[in-house]
Amino acid sequence: MAKKIIRFGVIGCGLMGKEFASAAARWLHLTNVDFEPRIVAVCDAVPAATAWFEENVPSVEKAYTDYKLLLADPTIEAIYCAVPHNLHEQIYVDIIEAGKHLLGEKPFGIDQNANQMVQAAIIKHPEVIVRCSSEFPFYPGAQQLIQWVQENKFGKIIEVEAGFWHSSDLDPTKAINWKRRIATNGEYGCMGDLGMHVLHLPMRFGWKPKSVRALLSKIVPERPDNQGNMVPCETWDNAILACDVDTGEQSFPMVLSTKRIAPGNANTWFIKIQGTKLSAEFTTKNPKQVASLPYTPGGVQAWHVADAPYKSAYQTITGGIFEFGFSDSILQMWAAFCDELVHGAEMQQNFHCATPEEAAGSHLVFTAALESNRTGNTTQINWRD
Ligand SMILES: NC(=O)c1ccc[n+]([C@@H]2O[C@H](COP(=O)([O-])OP(=O)(O)OC[C@H]3O[C@@H](n4cnc5c(N)ncnc54)[C@H](O)[C@@H]3O)[C@@H](O)[C@H]2O)c1
Fold first, then answer.
1. Atom 34 of ligand 1, residue of closest alpha carbon
2. Could you give the CA distance from residue 94 to residue 236 in angstroms, rounded to a whole number?
3. For position 385, what pLDDT does the model report?
4. Could you tell me which residue ranges the GFO/IDH/MocA-like oxidoreductase domain spans (predicted)?
5. Quick one: which atom of ligand 1 is closest to the CA of 193?
6. Among 15, 176, 327, which residue has the most ligand 1 atoms within 8 Å of its CB, making it the best to mutate?
7. For residue 347, with 0-12 CB atoms within 10 Å meaning exposed, 13-18 middle and 19 or more buried, which class applies?
8. Same domain flag for 154 and 234
9. Last residue of a domain, one of 88, 110, 132
10. pLDDT below 50 — which residues of the chain?
């Protein structure tokens, strides 16, 4: 199949920049796609980071330390940007104003003001496709729950719980980095870092919280820097948000949690939906399985746990008997972004990447959560602004 090659620039060549390079290098894993990303230029403030790309990604033609030089290349159509949160506003706005499509990392601005500046640039440039990175909904188990929500299988929703939990920060000797400083990660702390992943599906389903009561915790107050000095660890480690959802058709409680210190959990993303006709749960802790409990009045209440085969949004060479993992979810998200760049609304499948509006919704929730934690009250969320 002839493929449309999309010439990409990568700005920010750290952890996530490399994940994209790995997904692009594994494009042959996908079958039946008529598009392919090609990373032709990279930019990082630290030359050692771009050197990795020059050594490992043969398609790279140019490496820059100034992203504006990369944006000046008219042959580059699209950008993946994965930089610290304090840089999102300026760099995303410049990318959009340069007329390049953008898959930007969350949280899409360090705070709500920054996010609004990005939104304003998007409104001025409707010709540019902008999406926010969020890969976990591409797990086959999550895709199954999405299908059940779209098919209205749950009946009246009783409650929803969604979370994203890490645990490596339990170690007090773990060194500080930009993600634990307010100047670079933002006041949102763990919510800015992990929260878009948790809110992606609720936003997609139209489950907008009307109000939030937040409990934010700082558990480890200082950490060693790279000289071994103890320095303040400023950001919120854990957040629990009790939300009151009103969809217009039904209302229900939704508990969202983002945790940097959840003992025993390494990259655990989950969603649990309880309804009067069906309850279902998926967690990346158990990435092969989906649990569901169908119910008819008077019937047995029994959980069914089924291995979810490798059944992804985009078909791959992997057989259905194998299992799906984190790097597969990144590959699938990239396929969805490239599919949308090439086919617009006529994508091969209908689950598109998180939108800027969904990211803006997450900022409304995090900003209200900060106020709720500060005042000790429930904060109302105004979705009309
Ligand atoms: N989708 C996910 O699962 C996921 C996972 C981790 C991080 N993230 C997000 O990705 C983004 C980056 O996080 P990371 O973990 O890759 O961080 P990282 O620290 O590993 O990489 C960030 C890179 O940006 C570079 N950089 C800093 N200033 C720059 C500038 N002015 N111009 C160009 N490059 C510059 C740094 O040198 C570094 O190499 C953040 O928004 C973060 O929230 C997403």
1. 44
2. 30
3. 60
4. 143-277
5. 43
6. 15
7. middle
8. yes
9. 132
10. none
